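Q: Now give one record:
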Amino acid sequence: MTLRPAWSEVFAPERLSTVRALPLPEPLTRQWAFGSSAGAGVRVAVVDSGIDADHPMVGGVQGWAAFRADEATPSGVVCHEMEHADLVGHGTACAGVIRSIAPDCDLLSVRVLGERLSGRGAVFAAGLRWALDSGAHVVNCSLSTNRTNYADLFHDIADAAAHAGVVVVCAVNNVEGTSLPATFASVISVAAHEGRDPMRWDANPKPPVDFGAPGIEVEVAWRGGGTIVTTGNSFAAPHIAGHVARLLAEHPGLMPYEVKTILRACADNVH
């Protein structure tokens, strides 16, 4: 039996409850929401370990920024806006998921994690700020921090994104505990559910986690051009990010709270 990541248990078929449909004057359908959209014109920043642009499941990257800690600089962080490798494979996995759902979107690789899939909060924050400043419409964060001393910093960044109309999609931690910025109301938080259909997602009737999407024993792209089968909330988030890209391509100018509302109305467990 696969060990389920934290928060994913609410999306288990035997526990998932029905979510009340929004009382809209006309049915809000997926056809209206997405049409035939493939995400064209939408910039999706993947804040992670980098992206392998040559991976066949990624199909190219349209923007780059790599961040690392450097105590010799005033900010303690340096940025290199140039092509870079994925140091782990994690960012490539997320990019591949997004590309599979929104194949015409533009991907931005924002590397903030090192070879051990770890990084500093200040580096993470700098990468998020760069994503906002670069014109990203969607930001995928399949990472988080459990350090509460960064709460104010990430809260300010999350609010800045929401006010600017940038949709931030965050995977919640795989283990219970503090998960920032995933549990802020201004972002879309995602955990794994058991299905493997990339076109299906569930709404959580009891947030802070908003949605469940495929992330349990899913096959994803990985470093070196291959794939792995893995489990984690990290791989659920880019499914939602891909759908957000499709939605924004079909309906440009939607605000993040409108995006969350539409995703909820179109969830598979809403009746």
